[in-house]
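Shapes recur. One chain:

:::
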Amino acid sequence: MSHILVVEDEAIIRSALRRLLERHGFRVSEAGSVQQALEYSFKDFDLVISDLRLPEAPGTDLIDAIDPIPVLIMTSYASMKSAVDAMKMGAVDYIAKPFDHDEMVRTVTTILSNKAKAAATPEISDSNDTESECSIGEMVGSCTAMAKLYTRIKKVAPADITVLIQGESGTGKELAAKAIHEHSPRKNAPIISVNCAAIPESLIESELFGHEKGAFTGASASRQGLVEAAEGGTLFLDEIGELPMEAQARLLRVLQENEVRRVGSVHAKKVDVRLIAATHRNLRKLVKEHRFREDLYYRLQVIEVSLPPLRDRGEDVIEIANSLLQKQAIRLGVDKIPRFNKETRQQMLSYDWPGNVRELENAVQRALILCDDQEITTEYLGIPVDEELLIPDTLVNRSPISNSDEIAQKPAEANEDLSLEDYFQHFVLEHQENMNETDLAQKLGISRKSLWERRQRLGIPRPKKNAS
């Protein structure tokens, strides 16, 4: 079981974080300052999570003091530059406060998984320092399409040019962006990831480009944008097809002139940032529909990288499933990792995986939790066996249901084989054109806040209302 030290001077936050991590199978110790933290024997810890601003000394003082134990820095969202500076000092990652619980657990799991992989990998000499042909970064798979993708990433990464990543939802576009960054000359600088669909349209320009004090109601102080925060590194804009037209114009100036102008400012500032964009939408079609700027489109598509859907990757499904099994076992604290039996592997190979790797990860996690022995059978995997459910269009393109009682019965009927996140995604996509956010939340049995948070996590944008 992984042992984590939480360093936070606010007792309420420290206790809440401890309870969250313990619920997910981690052993947790606490400290209220850097001085208290240094009283521990750090050989007992696998990870330290520290607030940036602490009494007497900042959390970054721990980075060198406890090396090679990784340090995850927590900081307020408004202090993004401080977080970037912390990563330059050697922090393994940063997370904004107030943090999303799922994001915190996901970040901790990734850090510990990478640490375990590094410990299990034997050191090799510089002359043989070549990356595995069946993986790059955190991407896994050895099919022909992925081999071509790895080659393209290695060619594209060193060139300091804009890259457009295309692929269906759940195919791993963010992992591809991180692989490009990690193989580029900017690898020692930060990569800032932004989901354009998750930020309200009224805030997107301020979030990306920053604002000056008094620029709008509530702007009580000047604030740096995420473009500036990525200085010297990489800015990854996921779901760029959801970017409003006004923000597209500002982004175009960043690409053309290498400068950014904050909202409410008359002065521009030079920036050195590499842009990687990603989308599951057809940008060329959006250009024809006048919903995406043509000049920005041609600036973005200097180099295109396409990710194949999981259904076209053959035996990679098993390879990825085994990798995810190892990752989830670390997260859940499972000592004896079960294996997929022959029938289960065959079912995974024959299924279409409309949700791609994200859906596969949900299935693996569910199987690991439910499995009582050392063999994962098909019943634990929980993927549909009905042929109709193997076709993704049938889940999202059915005719709208007008009877609210019939909608409420859905979880117990046709969708009982889906994971909760699958059902949520399919339900929202099917009904959001005909139901408002309050009705959607009520039918799903959650609050509007929970609905908004899940939209963010799954990358489901709210439909744009047509101007009358």
Remarks:
- The chain has 21 helices and 16 strands.
- The domain at 133-306 is CATH 3.40.50.300 (Rossmann fold).
- The longest helix spans residues 101-120.
